Amino acid sequence: MTATRDLVVEMSALSKWYGQHHVLRDVTLGLARGEKIVLCGPSGSGKSTLIRCINGLEPFHQGDLVVSGTHLDGTPASLAAVRRTAGMVFQSFNLFPHLSVLENLTLGAIYAKGEPERDAIARAHSLLARVQLTSQAQKYPGQLSGGQRQRVAIARALMLEPEVMLFDEPTSALDPEMVHEVLDVMEELARGGQSMIVVTHEMGFARKVADLVVFMDQGEIVEAAPPEQFFQAPSTARAKAFLGQISHAT
Fold first, then answer.
1. How many CB atoms lie under 10 A from the CB of residue 58?
2. pTM of the full predicted structure?
3. Cβ atoms of 236 and 219 closer than 8 Å
4. Are strands 212-217 and 195-199 parallel, antiparallel or unpaired?
5. What is the pLDDT of residues 117-131, one digit of tens each?
6. Contacting residues for 82 by C-beta, under 8 A, at least 6 apart
7. What single-letter DSSP state applies at residue 57?
8. Burial category of 21 from C-beta neighbours within 10 Å (exposed 0-12, middle 13-18, buried 19 and up)
9. Best label site of 85, 163, 184, 206, fewest CB within 10 Å?
């Protein structure tokens, strides 16, 4: 990685084990400001573990990880700093079911960041408009479709005004007809210059949005290339086999 790049996320020789299982193997990767990286690969390849390490949800055991200038060293201070600058969107929404959509968005801003309630509510309404959910502010998560809940989750993450957005398979729990609702919002964020790392099997999204496609297998980066190169002329046999399976499945 060159010193001239303005890196929002920088990881060097990152390794992690679950017992004897070496789940991440010397992963080195950088995300520049405004860049979009898509992580793809077979199930169990370490993609979700890697993205959870970036947000401090999983500890790593070797290597270095810097997010928005903070060295993630496992201390409470570093974890808090990273989570203020890295928004996370999960596969399963993780919304509070007993709170309204508006309350889900404003809770952290008001009570964790100390933002005045009026300001937080105004920002929340603006973000709900951005994800096309203006009329859903007073509803509860259980009253929404899966696609709507995931868009609420994206808006909640954006309330942090994050330097980087992390998406962990955000459409995999959705019915097929709802997938496009979420991908459209993610594409709009990408067009707006949001730095993003996305774990997904949506290869159409990767083709359209990614600056870099990173293919992982068995805990390591096997191939990293711009989408046109990755999809048209992958350089490794493992990536070729994966793309063959994806195209056969679709």
1. 16
2. 0.92
3. no
4. unpaired
5. 999 999 999 999 999
6. 54, 55, 56, 67, 68, 70, 72
7. S
8. exposed
9. 184
